Amino acid sequence: MKRKYFGTDGVRGTVGEAPITPDFVMRLGFAAGKVLVRGEQHGNARPVVLIGKDTRISGYMLEAALEAGFSAAGVDTMLAGPLPTPAVAYLTRALRLSAGVVISASHNPFHDNGIKFFSATGNKLPDETESAIEDALEAPLECVPSEKLGRAKRLEDARGRYIEFCKSTFPNELDLRGLKLVVDCAHGAAYHIAPDVFHELGAEVFAIGNQPNGMNINDAHGATAPDNLIAAVRERGADIGIALDGDADRLLMVDSNGRLYNGDELLYIMVRDRQKLGAVPGVVGTLMTNMALEVAFREMGIGFARAKVGDRYVLEVLQERGWQLGGEGSGHLLCLDKHTTGDGIVSALQVLSALRRCGDSLAKCTEDLALYPQTLVNVRVTPGYDWQASMAVLHEKEKVEQELGNEGRLLIRPSGTEPLIRVMVEAKNAETAERMANRIADKIRA
């Protein structure tokens, strides 16, 4: 269904430009307050919503606007301060709150920000609920009577509660003693959390990207910029490097040789470990998941399904099929027996526990997974351009798919945030993938 403001991960944009303005965010808080608590039975208690944020300077302004909107709707708020996105999901569920809200633009630069919601169960909102919030935005903002206005208070020790939760997802019989880790927090929401989690489990931890100033989130650090982590791992002689993004819901890892492992490879390690512990009925990836995983899981006797791009859609398919493990190559990984949403710290602990159990390295655990070379070409187009209306593009697509056969894959999809058409080709040969992707891209440009 078509939505005006919500994308694949909440409402996001440049601060000061619609829709990320104080007045809109206040109206969004009001509309969400009305929709999220509709039909709930609270008795004499007020509905309560938890608000967390990452380290962007604009978070202060947007937090105040959201708080005002919720208050006008008669909803109390608990303010958690800087906190990873998955921490808000966990605390919302653990504290039996009505909803959770995160002020973050994830891996985007500091001048962007966004708003995303979690339900009372700690899950991202379904499309239908987001559409209902958009409908409610059309109504005027009307304040409840003064005696029914919502109140705000600070949630004490949100950080400590979440650290203990993360540690609880690591096996009791294992620890991280003797392991030297570099943890890159992307100057983001996990700067005061992630290093402590790994340290308290016994690892020697060197933290980088842990000095946020409101404007350096994701800047040359984190999962989208791993070069500094790679250098730090080599310089420190560390065993493993862990890269989170600004809101700590995605994960990449680096081995002692400086080799980077993406989300597809880390998902493979987790699935391989879980299969040794018991049956794994199936795994969910996305349209962008490397074809090598699909082939590997088939050979392992494990089902595989592809969802639309976005961890929320991976989650939906996992829930539909009753499976537990899924993820994206970007590093969004889901372990539904550990958490309701993607969590970079929890995912890192699952990979580390797999390595501890088998006694092998990241390289050894992935040596039989040969990722297909993948070429992605972004073609800028005029807004509203429909590539499927072009016979030339469709004809070239058919030719490429015939040439690839069962030894490759073509995906053409519009960007959800920019006027771009993304062309992705996988093939056993890198030169073939690049040549075929550019053939499609040239037809789109023409």
From TrEMBL:
<dbReference type="InterPro" id="IPR005846">
    <property type="entry name" value="A-D-PHexomutase_a/b/a-III"/>
</dbReference>
<feature type="modified residue" description="Phosphoserine">
    <location>
        <position position="106"/>
    </location>
</feature>
<feature type="domain" description="Alpha-D-phosphohexomutase alpha/beta/alpha">
    <location>
        <begin position="262"/>
        <end position="368"/>
    </location>
</feature>
<dbReference type="InterPro" id="IPR036900">
    <property type="entry name" value="A-D-PHexomutase_C_sf"/>
</dbReference>
<dbReference type="GO" id="GO:0005829">
    <property type="term" value="C:cytosol"/>
</dbReference>
<comment type="similarity">
    <text>Belongs to the phosphohexose mutase family.</text>
</comment>
<dbReference type="InterPro" id="IPR050060">
    <property type="entry name" value="Phosphoglucosamine_mutase"/>
</dbReference>
<protein>
    <recommendedName>
        <fullName>Phosphoglucosamine mutase</fullName>
        <ecNumber>5.4.2.10</ecNumber>
    </recommendedName>
</protein>
<dbReference type="Pfam" id="PF02880">
    <property type="entry name" value="PGM_PMM_III"/>
</dbReference>
<dbReference type="InterPro" id="IPR005845">
    <property type="entry name" value="A-D-PHexomutase_a/b/a-II"/>
</dbReference>
<dbReference type="GO" id="GO:0008966">
    <property type="term" value="F:phosphoglucosamine mutase activity"/>
</dbReference>
<dbReference type="Pfam" id="PF02879">
    <property type="entry name" value="PGM_PMM_II"/>
</dbReference>
<dbReference type="GO" id="GO:0006048">
    <property type="term" value="P:UDP-N-acetylglucosamine biosynthetic process"/>
</dbReference>
<dbReference type="InterPro" id="IPR016066">
    <property type="entry name" value="A-D-PHexomutase_CS"/>
</dbReference>
<feature type="binding site" description="via phosphate group">
    <location>
        <position position="106"/>
    </location>
    <ligand>
        <name>Mg(2+)</name>
    </ligand>
</feature>
<feature type="binding site">
    <location>
        <position position="249"/>
    </location>
    <ligand>
        <name>Mg(2+)</name>
    </ligand>
</feature>
<dbReference type="InterPro" id="IPR005843">
    <property type="entry name" value="A-D-PHexomutase_C"/>
</dbReference>
<dbReference type="Pfam" id="PF00408">
    <property type="entry name" value="PGM_PMM_IV"/>
</dbReference>
<dbReference type="InterPro" id="IPR005841">
    <property type="entry name" value="Alpha-D-phosphohexomutase_SF"/>
</dbReference>
<dbReference type="InterPro" id="IPR006352">
    <property type="entry name" value="GlmM_bact"/>
</dbReference>
<dbReference type="Pfam" id="PF02878">
    <property type="entry name" value="PGM_PMM_I"/>
</dbReference>
<keyword id="KW-0413">Isomerase</keyword>
<keyword id="KW-0597">Phosphoprotein</keyword>
<dbReference type="InterPro" id="IPR016055">
    <property type="entry name" value="A-D-PHexomutase_a/b/a-I/II/III"/>
</dbReference>
<feature type="active site" description="Phosphoserine intermediate">
    <location>
        <position position="106"/>
    </location>
</feature>
<feature type="domain" description="Alpha-D-phosphohexomutase C-terminal">
    <location>
        <begin position="376"/>
        <end position="442"/>
    </location>
</feature>
<keyword id="KW-0460">Magnesium</keyword>
<dbReference type="InterPro" id="IPR005844">
    <property type="entry name" value="A-D-PHexomutase_a/b/a-I"/>
</dbReference>
<feature type="binding site">
    <location>
        <position position="245"/>
    </location>
    <ligand>
        <name>Mg(2+)</name>
    </ligand>
</feature>
<dbReference type="GO" id="GO:0000287">
    <property type="term" value="F:magnesium ion binding"/>
</dbReference>
<comment type="function">
    <text>Catalyzes the conversion of glucosamine-6-phosphate to glucosamine-1-phosphate.</text>
</comment>
<dbReference type="GO" id="GO:0009252">
    <property type="term" value="P:peptidoglycan biosynthetic process"/>
</dbReference>
<feature type="binding site">
    <location>
        <position position="247"/>
    </location>
    <ligand>
        <name>Mg(2+)</name>
    </ligand>
</feature>
<dbReference type="GO" id="GO:0005975">
    <property type="term" value="P:carbohydrate metabolic process"/>
</dbReference>
<feature type="domain" description="Alpha-D-phosphohexomutase alpha/beta/alpha">
    <location>
        <begin position="161"/>
        <end position="258"/>
    </location>
</feature>
<keyword id="KW-0479">Metal-binding</keyword>
<feature type="domain" description="Alpha-D-phosphohexomutase alpha/beta/alpha">
    <location>
        <begin position="3"/>
        <end position="139"/>
    </location>
</feature>
<dbReference type="GO" id="GO:0004615">
    <property type="term" value="F:phosphomannomutase activity"/>
</dbReference>
